[in-house]
Model the fold of this input.
Amino acid sequence: MKTIINDLISALHAAADAERAVGMTAYMKYNFPFLGIQTPIRRRILKVWNQQHAPEIKNNVRAIVRALWQLPEREFHYCAVDLLVKNLKNKWEVADELLIYELLTTHAWWDTVDLLAKYGLGGYLQQFPEKRDLILESYLASDQFWLQRSTLIFQLDYKSKTDVELLKALSLHFKGDKEFFIRKAIGWAWREYARVNPELVRQWIPQSGLSPLSVREAMKHL
Done:
């Protein structure tokens, strides 16, 4: 397994662009170093690597994801998320609750958290709905706002299966929160649900008492 991970490391380093990396690092508020690889190029490299090592990746995807997550450059974290989404959709195991938690709480920023919440946590809880309340309760009790944000956006891909009463309860729970990423997430969740039931959103949001930012985001396309 170490050999195939080294193959990906070598391929990405070969495509590095030091000048572009400066801007990418600045855009992410200097939270992570970058190799300077644009998304289409990174995904092409990952696709070729995946084709070359498909059986071994499939059998070791969780270990590979964890190994990539330990590397400093952000592109490796993006590759880990892409691998997770591609290989574990509808194939989650109960124990993956811990993996999702690890990824949401380390190297955490919106660019990975949002994908992990939507496709990781969201997919996992669709497969194991009996785990939902306990996991959400623990995330809500956490002092990590990325976990809290995840409770608001894990249903982004649920569409008509969205638990609207849960979304209302979570939105009201956080309505006094001053954190930008929480207020933004509330609005985003409702904006996405408005694609399914715009009338409910039009009726509920204006009288909800949510922050102006949340309301503005929720009503953006209505």
Observations:
- The chain has a mean pLDDT of 97.
